[in-house]
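Entry 14. Structure prediction run on the chain below.
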Amino acid sequence: MITVTVPATSANMGPGFDSIGIALNLYNRFSMEECDCIDISATGGERIPNDETNLVYQCAKRVYDICGKPMPGLRLIEDCSIPQTRGLGSSSACTVAGLLGANALLGGPLHQENIIDLAAAIEGHPDNSTPAILGGFCTALLEYGKVWSVRVPIADKVDFVAFIPNFELSTEKARGALPKTIPHHDAVFNLSRAALLTGSLVTGDLHNLRVAVGDCLHQPYRFGLIPNGEEVVRSAKGLGALGAFLSGAGPTIITMVDKEDKTYYSRACMYFADRFPDWTPVLLACDEVGATVTQTE
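Output returned:
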């Protein structure tokens, strides 16, 4: 049996819509092996499909099909810490796990570049799947069926606090809230801030982050779907965060915090327990490793 460990990811990070993402140290683990049936379970009792509709199974079978190998069946055990439908890359984790796991079971016929391209093709964009595979902070785009990306380590000056609500928001609903066209000045607004965000995280120029997370392309349209979302952002900033943004399509909100601010997390926990009890702060850091595959037998 092999085990695939995949980190959570936060896409967009404000201005980098469908192009910027970061891996975070919250993980799903998937143990799998070939068998003569489909045997799928979750260690924590999560509600997951236990048949051919399971996303991990579908992605694993896709690798077998590409390699021209019949898939006899799959025993799959999911141990999931990434909350589903919260904007933290749970579906990308399943996609990546299925592809990497099947590739390992077949002896590694596909290179990492192939896996990255295939994951982005399945997801439709690479901002979650690429950092899930590579770790770190990634800028990526999908063109000509190929992912073009840069993966860089960020300056070791920033922690991340995810404010995770106890309600879900489907990606489909969040995408449905977006306009079909945008003004030219909104595009310029985001381009400048995406570049500033990237440079600031890499160099550690933290004073830029409050401005660099600005966005006109998706967050203004999605906050209407998230009860208390804008109030959570204002409160998180008021407690001293360097910047705050929707994680992926939401509803999770992530703040970037100076590592030197040793009490931010405890202050946030106390404040939110009283003011926003439906939101749970979780202290995270950038995962610089990405998805891993290990033998567990």
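The first strand starts at residue 2 and ends at 12.
Filed with the rest of this week's runs.
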